Amino acid sequence: MTPREPGGRHLESRHMIDREQVLHVARLARLELTDDEVAKMSDELSAVLGHIEKIGELDLDGVAPTTHVVEVSNALRPDVVAPSLPHEVALENAPAVAGGGFRVPSPQAG
Amino acid sequence: MSATDPTALTAAAAVAAIEAGELSAAEVFDAYRAAAAADELNAYVWVARDAPAPAAGAPLAGVPLAVKDLFCTEGVPSQAGSKILEGYRPPYTATVVAGLAAAGAPLLGKTNQDEFAMGSSNENSAYGPVLNPWSRDRVPGGSSGGSAAAVAAGSAPWALGTDTGGSIRQPAALCGIVGLKPTYGTVSRYGMIAFASSLDQAGPLTRDVTDAALLLKHMVGRDERDSTSIGFPGAIELPTATRLDGIRLGVPEELTAAAEGIEPGVLASFEATLKIAEELGASIETCHLPHAPHALSAYYVLAPAEASSNLARYDGVRYGPRSASNGAGLVEMYTRTRSEHFGPEVKRRIMLGTYSLSSGYYDAYYGRAQRVRTKIADDFRAAFERFDFVVTPTAPTVAFELGALTSDPLAMYLNDYCTVPMSLAGIPAISIPSGLSDGLPVGFQLAGPAFSENRILDAAFALERAIAFDATPGRA
């Protein structure tokens, strides 16, 4: 059994990630890849996913997912005011600063 | 000037020598500073000029510490092996580094590593590969390769590393030293630049088991600033055991005899160590971790998924360089900054993680991998009902040549075959040198249930004495 999409389609085991998918995932990840990188990424991710696909063979019905090995929930502490990073220190590593904040290009530009 | 060469001593011996007045803390620091500054292995990315004198009675007496670059150190470059953090000097220090400094282990230097701890050879560092002190044409392992090489070469008395899927244990094995990954949650992750938060754990890389215990003793503890930290019940003790009477060792078939790709020389050293364990009184039996062969697959879904989320913060706004291309909008600035400054392996893992979390694939990959993780933890729980420890070779091979695996990501990932299962289960495991194969060190891994660090250290100590591994790389 190979992994299925929720809709039930089998995922293709060879070139599971084609050029279009690589470009789509790269957009989601805010990465810009050169044509060479796209081709290489398609090959490499397909090879890794081909290996990973083996977990599709396991019967995992009724098995609870593990998100974290530590069984701690709601790690609470008293809400006490304490010193935090001074404003100017927080800005010290920023590539661009203006008016006491992080300066960024306009979201409307480009 | 004292007649003793401080760099010839284990860290515990250096502490004792300082306490006995045979050496001063300054002599020890200066000797290591000189050795670190003269390092030819590219193990260090930054070396301290001086160190504060240890507080009177500080238990670690001023014996300095090499620290993997991904630990934040106030005012000191902390670049996690990445160009995207070039020039970053954090405004605060990681809890574990601050705690060790307070205990008398000041910062000696920052060590090279695979970018964001993603790698098994240290070849993914933006600051160049680290060379293995046993053979300079070979890798030191990774991702804590700089820490391992520095300790093995004698340019650090001991070092901090982090382990997500084997990044302390595998380089320790390949460099012939001791490396311990503690139980998840025993050591604070505050100030560790994150890779995969449900797996990342800090631990010691040392010349022997006693040093590992001594360093870990001052690392564990609950930290309010890390809500997943739980601390350690009781205290870490220095090991004393010389025998293994009554200890039951389980040898998981899936990670030994039935595993493909374990080199004959590595298996031979592993089996010789089992014989030694038997002579010390341990009983040895085959056991089963039926889901262990799937651990690597689950890991390479879960860790990249967490990484793709953790690394979303690198966008050229708050720290690190920004793409110099002008005239672009905000999203273009993010995209160009990330594309220009992340290395190929980091991009690969971000892509893999983003893919497996994306709509339509989440259940098939991420959801299934989380369920496999449950089964792997269950396998260990079942094994520990019958056995005190599970033992395997740490890495399937000895140190390989630089460049040997860089064009085949999957082959590189297989380095973690024997270490990833313990990471997914969150349990502690140590690697100790078990001998040489073709003149290169082999690691023996011993894993126990959560919080069994004291028992692991005791067993490893007894084995270490009996194995009597005394080979060292040629120290310049």
Can you put this structure into words, describing what you see?
The complex is a heterodimer of chains A (110) and B (476). Chain A is mainly alpha-helical and 110 residues long. Chain A has a domain at 1-60: Glu-tRNAGln amidotransferase C subunit, N-terminal domain (Histone, subunit A, Orthogonal Bundle), CATH 1.10.20. Helices cover 30% and strands 4% of the residues of chain A. Chain A has helices spanning 19-28, 35-52, 87-91; strands spanning 97-98, 101-102. In chain A, strands 1-2 form a two-stranded antiparallel ribbon. In chain A, strand 1 and strand 2 form a beta hairpin. In chain A, helix 1 packs across helix 2 (35-52). The longest helix of chain A is centred in the middle third of the chain and has 18 residues, at 35-52. With 476 residues, chain B is α/β, with parallel strands linked by helices. Among the domains of chain B are: 6-244 and 453-467, Alpha-Beta Complex (Amidase signature (AS) enzymes); 293-368, no CATH class. Helices cover 34% and strands 13% of the residues of chain B. Chain B has an 11-stranded mixed sheet, with helices on both faces. The model of chain B has no long low-confidence stretch (mean pLDDT 96). Classes of the chains: A mainly alpha (110), B alpha/beta (476).
Short overview:
The complex is a heterodimer of chains A (110) and B (476). Chain A has 110 residues and is mainly α.
